[in-house]
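Extended Data, panel c. Modelled sequence:
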Amino acid sequence: MKREEVLTEALPYIQKFHGKTMVIKLGGHAMVDSAILETAISDVVLLELVGIRVVLVHGGGPEITEKMKAMGKEPKFVAGLRITDEETLEIAQMVLVGKINNNIISLIAKCGGKAVGISGNDGSLIVARRMTPQKVSIGGKEEEVDLGHVGEIEEINPAVLHTLLDNRYIPVIAPLAIDRNGQSLNINADTAAGEIARALNAYKLINMTDVEGIMDRERTVVYQRIRATEAESLISRGVVSEGMIPKVSSIVNAVKAGVAYGHVINGNKPHNLLLEMFTDEGVGTMIFHD
């Protein structure tokens, strides 16, 4: 497209989204590739500068695993779930808050934006309870496994986010929570993003990951627009599986609770976020209420 066509197509979307809240979950390869991450952050800053209230939630699983191995601790997973003992929790806190969160804040500043990094512990933003032992299949036999310091979200207290957004800061949230006894817990970043979007009554929840969107069973066709009930059916039929389940489930739950639209897009492609937000065709998969 010519430059003037790009700008004229974007204008009505900029007008429509001005003042609305968007929750964006950053994950996948972008978290370990500095060039991809910086491009994504520059797009986020652009959104804020045109008047969109942006909240970022980031993951960091691969970096936690890398740091554990560097410290001589072998990560343990059961049915895709990380066993989080006391030492693993400390490593997760160090990576999520001390490294990834700070890095994103620095990139936002470099791109001309203002951000404040927090975890779910701050202001009791995310209150959770320790997850009960999970029934998983190991070698064809069902067993109960205690995941340790892993939390299920009970409550979101978004007051701190409203304060930051009202003062034009971008909140950058590390996926940690606190329980009612003051104990820190590790939580799933996709689930956290969905619950925060619900609590803020966000207009959009956008999950930036490593795939083009929600795909069919053969992984050849991307669903461009689907209803929340259709997305649930894809999960129950096993079309959506493994790591995509919490991403899609969090969006479905948010949309059913009042978030207007949810999106799954490939965050590895430069400016996919802007293409989704400001073009008629968009990218990835959009989930909407029935």
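The two ends are 33 Å apart (CA to CA). This feature is highlighted in the accompanying rendering.
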